[in-house]
Design brief:
Low-confidence stretches: none
Mean pLDDT: 95
CATH architecture of the largest domain: 3-Layer(aba) Sandwich
Shape: elongated
Bound molecules: zinc ion
CATH superfamily of the largest domain: Peptidoglycan recognition protein-like
Number of strands: 8
Structural class: alpha/beta
Radius of gyration: 22 Å
Order of helices and strands: EHEHEEEHEHHEHEH
CATH topology of the largest domain: Lysozyme-like
Largest sheet: 6 strands, mixed
């Protein structure tokens, strides 16, 4: 997932500056046929990395983006197309900022509890765009669940706007059920895909090598040097149990001449 950051600092929601303790993620889709991120997201003169962001997002010449006052709506992120047509995510509020995305239901508002993002809709008939936008939304949700220790399968944690309405914590909107079912998906599929992504990441993070012989050859010299220097002692039972991350770091240090 490509994740940019372009905070909507001139939006009244950002200016209000209230914070939440996130306990869920609410997925929205825009309800308008415009998959371009630049429709909603634009940097200002004060935005860090403005030139790079403009190059990546493209320029909104209509002045209708959300980085301005008077809108009464703001989300923590968007998923949509960059100027080059690829699909990416952009963070538009600090994740723990109180967003203005859910409105109010009969029992309160998910604005007080949920991180939110919009998936930019296209004409809702392009399977290739749907696949990429859906996949990016899954990855973004997985990242947020991980960051905030959220269980995506727990009741009410990962929901869409319409789920929120049914639960009494959002206004009466149809998103994302106006779109996902056209491609055979619903929010149960989405939650399951978030779990799969999180599980995959965990496995990726958990590569360990028991002994020097298990360490891939391209790391082995650096790891051997660290062992020889007594910098790496293993677990005490004769096993090294060294992670791939550490192997990589030692290899960098070795290339820098730090391991002799
Ligand atoms: Zn919505």
């Amino acid at each position: 997932m490509k994740l940019l950051k372009c905070l909507l600092t001139e939006n009244d929601c950002f200016q209000e500056g209230r914070t939440i303790k996130p306990s869920g993620v609410m997925v929205h889709s825009t309800g308008a046929n415009n998959p371009a991120l630049r429709r909603y997201v634009q940097p200002l003169a004060s935005t860090p990395g403005r030139e790079e962001l403009l190059a990546a997002l493209g320029v909104n010449r209509n002045g209708n983006h959300w980085n301005r006052p008077g809108l009464n709506a703001c989300v923590h992120g968007f998923v949509g197309r960059l100027a080059d047509g690829s699909v990416a995510a952009v963070q538009t509020l600090p994740w723990n900022c109180r967003g203005w995305h859910a409105g109010t239901g009969t029992g309160g508002s998910a604005n007080n509890t949920h991180i939110s993002f919009e998936i930019c809709e296209d004409g809702l008939t392009d399977p290739a765009y749907f696949r990429r936008a859906y996949g990016t939304a899954v990855e973004l949700t997985a990242m947020l669940c991980r960051e905030y220790g959220l269980d995506p399968l727990a009741d009410g944690v990962v929901i869409c706007h319409q789920d929120g309405f049914r639960r009494g914590i959002a206004s009466n909107h149809g998103d994302v059920y106006n779109w996902f079912p056209r491609f055979g998906m619903n929010m149960d599929d989405f939650r399951a895909d978030v779990v799969r992504t999180m599980d995959g990441e965990e496995e990726d993070d958990m590569v360990y090598y028991k002994n020097l012989d298990d360490v891939p050859e391209y790391y082995r010299e650096a790891v051997s040097k660290a062992v020889a220097k007594g910098a790496l002692n293993g677990t005490g039972s004769g096993e090294l149990n060294v992670s791939e991350d550490l192997c990589r770091m030692l290899t960098v240090l070795d290339r820098m001449g730090q391991l002799g």
